[in-house]
Amino acid sequence: KLEEFLNFKQLKTSLKEAILLDYYTAGFCWAKEMNFSLIQLSGFMDLLNFLLENLSDKHMTLGDNLKELGKAMAGIGETNSERSGDLNFFSIEQAKAVIDYLNISLFKHYKLYEYLFHSPREELVISNE
Questions:
Q1: How confident is residue 100, by pLDDT bands cut at 50, 70 and 90?
Q2: Helix (H) or strand (E) holding 128
Q3: CA atoms of 113 and 79, how far apart (whole Å)
Q4: Does residue 97 sit within a domain?
Q5: Is residue 103 part of a domain?
Q6: Which of 36, 49, 59, 95 could cross-link 41 (Cys pair, CB 3.0–4.6 Å)?
């Protein structure tokens, strides 16, 4: 279902599509294991997409993308609505868990994702096998 939603057409021959499908699937499964509500699950998947788009489309460095995560998470747990970010439906503990997950899944492997998105590769596909 996620493959259809992401509109991946070359999953069997595109390493990039396969890696992205794996990343989104792992994130979705993790969020389900955390018992996130539907709105939290949706927000978490939006956050995954946002951070990957920052890397792929905007060519953001690790430091800049971490700053963007900080802005998105700002104000969680605070009652002052001026500081509250878009992800204020997470509790403080959930926000910490999200940051930990992003650290081990994306930020720790940031150079690999940069290579995936920005290094030209010659793809020679002989067959689907």
A1: very high
A2: none
A3: 36
A4: yes
A5: yes
A6: 36
